[in-house]
Design goal:
Layout lengths: L6 H19 L9 H18 L11 H21 L3 H16 L2 H26 L3 H13 L5 H21 L3 H21 L1
């Protein structure tokens, strides 16, 4: 583990690198083979940043409540999607994301989505959470701002809501395991539900 005074520098460095890689990976054309390596490198970057900038505590190990929160949040997004699909400009933004699921390999896309979500939590609700003041607010804002790199307003909105929920879960559970379960569950719900709606 690195010394405490270096942790903010390590976390900041990985934040910049991860944000750049996020922008690159989600500007790859859906269906392109190199989307998968780009996404996996991104996930590995968040995970490495989380470990080197921490390591973060696991916290509560009960999966029940985080699973329910993830399913509930997924349900909220599905209801929201029913509204969004009636607005052409927003429908196009969501469609550009669901295209990755429609044109890619189902199991592989599922693995990438869940793995990336878990690794994001390891970094944002792990290492970053532990080095900032007012971590619920700060990690939510930083996660949302980092998502601007995707150039997709709907992903930015999703990041704000998801980031807030996982930050609160992190605060109450005392570690990264619960928010990782929430994020992974939400990702699977989105992957299974949204392509059918758009």
């Amino acid at each position: 583990m690195i010394r405490d005074r270096r942790r903010p520098l390590v976390v900041g460095g990985f934040l910049v690198l991860g944000t750049v890689l996020l922008g690159i990976s989600l500007h790859v054309e859906p269906g392109q083979d190199w989307f998968y390596p780009a996404a996996l490198v991104l996930a590995a970057t968040w995970a490495l940043g989380g470990v080197l900038g921490g390591p973060p505590p696991l916290g509560s190990r009960s999966p029940v409540l985080p699973l329910l929160v993830g399913l509930g949040l997924g349900a909220v997004f599905v209801v929201g999607a029913l509204v969004v699909r009636e607005i052409p400009a927003l429908d196009d933004l969501v469609g550009s994301v669901t295209a990755y699921a429609e044109r890619g390999s189902g199991p592989l896309i599922g693995l990438v989505a869940v793995l990336t979500g878990v690794c994001e939590e390891l970094f944002f609700r792990g290492a970053l959470y532990d080095v900032v003041g007012r971590p619920v607010v700060v990690t939510t804002v930083v996660y949302t701002v980092a998502t601007l790199a995707t150039g997709n307003a709907m992903l930015v909105f999703a990041a704000a809501l998801l980031g807030l929920v996982t930050a609160v879960v992190r605060e109450r559970s005392g570690g990264v395991l619960a928010p990782a379960i929430v994020h992974g569950t939400w990702s699977l719900v989105m992957l299974l539900a949204l392509p059918a709606l758009f």
